[in-house]
Specification:
Elements lengths: L11 E8 L2 E8 L1 H7 L3 H27 L5 E3 L13 H7 L10 H11 L4 H15 L13 E3 L2 E2 L2 H10 L12
Parallel strand pairs: 2-5
Antiparallel strand pairs: 1-2, 3-4
Helix pairs in contact: 1-5, 2-4
Length: 179
Amino acid sequence: METPGNVGAIHARMSLKSFAGITRIGVEMFAPSLIALADNQDLLDGTLAHEFLHYVWSTLRIAQWRALGHPDVLDLSAPPNYEALDENHEALDHVAQVPVEGWLTTRLQCLMMRAEDETSDESRSVQQSIVDGWVLRDLPSRPLSLRFKFNGKLAIDAGIVKRAQELGPVLTAGPIPHR
């Protein structure tokens, strides 16, 4: 859905956060979306399932990078002009995810598909709620950065790496992004 100024609401994203000198992978949920999704647990779960697949993919890319003997200097940023690529957004987004098999239950897979369907009445209602309850009220916001670089200590979830080893290869083909 288009909002004033043709800005679409992004509900959550995978991010890198530093605390006490250690960077960790996490998922950020934006306040307007969390408020709008508070009454729709299914879409909230679907959104978080979508982001979890990004979390797993990034964790495994970092583990792969380390296994190749590289230092903890890596760029997991979205490609340039990612935000402007509306037609390819979904395809680009899914490239940076692991396949759902072995990671999400059937229920979460279905909820993720519902959450990703921006044309559904359900999603349009959430978008409109964000526009009415946040955007048109001129509540605080800031541009979204899709830059994720780290250089130094990075903690990754060993349980994710172990699960991936049990499942077999799960990363998409292509070079490891580094700049």
